[in-house]
Amino acid sequence: MQGLAVITHEDIDRAHDRARVQAARLHRTWLSRLRLLWLLVGPGILVMLGENDGPSMLSYAATGARFGIGFFLPFIILTFAMAIIVQEMTVRLGAATHRGHAELIFERFGPFWGWFSMVDLGIGNFLTLITEFIAIRAGLGFFGVPPWAAVLASLALLYTALMTHRYWTWERITLAIAAFNLVFVPVALLTQPNWHSVGHALTSWTPLPKMNEDTLLIVLADIGATVTPWMLFFQQSATVDKGMTKRDVGFGRLDTVVGAALAAAAAVATVIATTPLFIHHMSTQHFQAAEFAQALQPLIGRFGASLFALGIVEAGMVACVTISISSAYAFGEVAARPHSLNLPVRQGKAFYSVVFLWAALAAAIVLIPGLPLVYVVLIVNVIAVLAMPPALVFLFMLANDRELMGDVVSPLWANALATAVVIFLVGAGVLFGISVVAPGLLAALGK
Amino acid sequence: MDDAVNLSEEELVLSTLEPDQLAEAKKQRLPRRRLRRSELLVLWFLRIYLLFMVAVVIYQAWTGTH
Are A435 and A216 in contact (CB under 8 A)? Predict the structure, then answer.
């Protein structure tokens, strides 16, 4: 059977990565365990920091500026706990099946349901990609960079990262850029936060915000800032592209938890950073990212405001990369075309074309004058939350498919938690619907 | 096998990757799973929920911008 194997360039690159993992496994020292961790982390951290994207950071900034320190701090941490529950399933699926999420949905449930989930993903990804360029444009706008230059620079960076044609190199470059997401932590420290209020909010979930349409929009935007369909597709495909196996599932889980912890720290820091705007009763209803930075400047100085703006640029940039690649992976899986970051351009024309064209089209839309950018950003996060329950049900069914999963099939506790997440997301969506269609009813519920 | 692949690389690939990790093996399609009535019900419910909620978002966006 081995003599008949057809081996591609993609297989060879992946085999080199796996050989290093196998070599690290030969020793039982602390140092080799650390090396193994270094070799196996990536998809989890990238997906979590990637989801701390432009619209997410803007949602967190709006949360701090409108509600201050209170209910939303522990709530944001809860949303990251939900993200861990959901993303852990994609690690097991990728490691057990060596196939991407779109591929599995199409093959196991047929093209009818497959196309539904692809349309959800395609529309969601495209809208989100537009918002990433909005964030980059707004962040660089703080430094006086014209929109066209901001958009061109971000496209150039995206294409440069892809030109490595090597999953490992691409992953490490993107991780290095993603680490910059933590820049919001020093920004928060510059505001000299009231740590007593932070501790009180984290333990008591108070003060509670008033229940109304605006609050629910922020609640949904904050959930959509943490759990979205593209994350499922990206992490599973990246787990496959990295070559992870069932033996690596433990490290995959750790990777996901570390990613969530880092992203939660950046998210909470952003809320804390913009809380002074709430304390000073500043109207931030129509703020873009750069305006948050400008408003913070008198409070934290030019350096702090610049860090905030750069953080927004980084958030948009990393998400541009991860979301474009998530779309390209899904396209390749469904169209049965080669889909890997280990592919040379010659063999992966379709894969790289999707990344390039998808990003270029989204970037062009951002340059249209008069687009209501802030509104688009919040609405995109809301749509992500609404599209999540159908995506989660497919994930749930696949992770419980014993034929596919074997001994890493979802245990009872994982199913209970995943069901709770679906019910929570549907409930939040229904409440949002009520707030729009019958705001009077919501006010009565809130009393 | 690709032209550029030499024997040592073939050995490396076969010794480090699981058989179904090879790009060629992924061309083999998985068998279709028959959905149960309860699963179909949940999928249709969530599909209708999504369509309805998207209409709500469009309505909210329209009222918000006017």
Answer: yes
Picking from A7, A387, A436, the nearest residue to B13 by CB comes out as: A7
Q: Which residues in B lie closer than 8 A to residue A387 (C-beta atoms)?
A: 50
> Which residues from A are below 8 Å from B47, CB to CB?
116, 390
Query: Is residue A37 very low, low, confident or very high in pLDDT (cuts 50, 70, 90)?
Result: very high
> pLDDT by residue (tens digit) across A247-265?
999 999 999 999 999 999 9
Please give the Cα distance from A346 to A328 (Å, whole number): 16
d(CA A343, CA A349): 9
Interface contact A379-B53, CB threshold 8 A: no
* Total residues belonging to chain B: 66
CB contact under 8 A, B10 and A379: no
Q: Please tell me the pTM assigned to this model.
A: 0.92
| Residue of A186, A166, A115 lying closest to A9 (CA atoms) | A166
Tracing tokens 């706990």 back to the chain, one arrives at A81
Q: How confident is the model at residue B5, as a pLDDT?
A: 54
Residue A401 tokens, joined: 């498919």
For B21, the closest of A243, A401, A426 (CB atoms) is: A243
By the 10 Å C-beta count (0-12 exposed, 13-18 middle, 19+ buried), A14 is classed as buried
> Which value does ipTM take for this structure?
0.87
Predicted confidence at residue A1, as pLDDT, reads: 42
